[in-house]
């Protein structure tokens, strides 16, 4: 297959494009409480986005990486952990609307991976501090707002999760999930 055969150029209009990202949700049982916990990262106070909020681990996928290799790299960079395996549990398309000329802004395609951590020893990074959060108490923490709905769906034993986020007139995002 040739590069020219990929259909990314279109005469007369700009095609929608996406930036690929990974989101990783690791679980572990707390040995002291026997509760299932999820590893999230509390954003550094100096971060431009989501400072002091809890988010999943992960980030951008580089041009020379496949999505799973990128997720493993991001996980190691942000926590020091290297899990035995990650399972792709979902894909979310994030639509970022249109620019002033009516062309679509680049969106985000988020690949959601889940896994179980054999080790609970984590290290902070420039992105923030990884923390084990009780899965039953996620609502008590200041999460990035889509995670209140996304985490339980991603961690459930069920079919692959698919989602679409779309911008609203007030600047917020509407979240829609299906399996």
Structural account:
The chain has 179 residues and is mainly beta. The chain has a domain at 23-91 and 111-160: Nucleoside Triphosphate Pyrophosphohydrolase. It is 12% helix and 34% strand. Strands 1, 2, 3, 4, 5, 6, 7 and 8 form an eight-stranded mixed beta sheet that branches. The relative contact order is 0.23. The mean pLDDT is 90.
Strand content bin: 25-35%
Rg from alpha-carbon coordinates:
17 Å
Task: Please state the structural category.
Answer: mainly beta
Compute the separation of the termini in Å: 32 Å
Number of strands: 8
CATH superfamily of the domain at 23-91 and 111-160: Nucleoside Triphosphate Pyrophosphohydrolase
User: Which fold name corresponds to the CATH topology of the domain at 23-91 and 111-160?
Assistant: Nucleoside Triphosphate Pyrophosphohydrolase
Tell me the series of helices and strands, N- to C-terminal.
EEEHEEEHEE
Low-confidence stretches: none
Major sheet summary line: 8 strands, mixed
Main CATH class of the domain at 23-91 and 111-160: Alpha Beta
Shape descriptor reads globular
Looking at the overall shape, the CATH architecture of the domain at 23-91 and 111-160 is Alpha-Beta Complex
Helix content: 10-25%
Please give the count of helices: 2
Q: Compute the average pLDDT.
A: 90
């Amino acid at each position: 297959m040739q590069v020219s055969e990929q259909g990314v150029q279109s005469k007369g209009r700009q095609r929608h494009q996406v930036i690929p990202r990974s989101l990783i949700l690791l679980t572990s049982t707390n040995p002291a409480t026997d509760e299932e916990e999820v590893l999230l990262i509390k954003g550094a106070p100096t971060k431009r986005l989501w400072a002091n909020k809890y988010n999943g681990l992960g980030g951008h996928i580089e041009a020379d990486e496949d999505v799973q290799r990128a997720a493993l790299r991001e996980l190691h960079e942000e926590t020091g952990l290297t899990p035995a395996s990650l399972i792709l549990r979902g894909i979310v398309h994030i639509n970022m609307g249109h620019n002033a000329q009516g062309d679509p802004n680049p969106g985000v395609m988020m690949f959601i991976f889940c896994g179980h951590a054999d080790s609970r020893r984590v290290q902070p990074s420039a992105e923030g501090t990884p923390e084990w959060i009780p899965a039953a108490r996620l609502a008590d923490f200041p999460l990035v707002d889509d995670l209140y709905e996304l985490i339980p769906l991603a961690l459930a034993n069920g079919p692959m999760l698919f989602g679409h986020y779309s911008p609203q007139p007030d600047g917020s995002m509407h979240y829609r999930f299906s399996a």
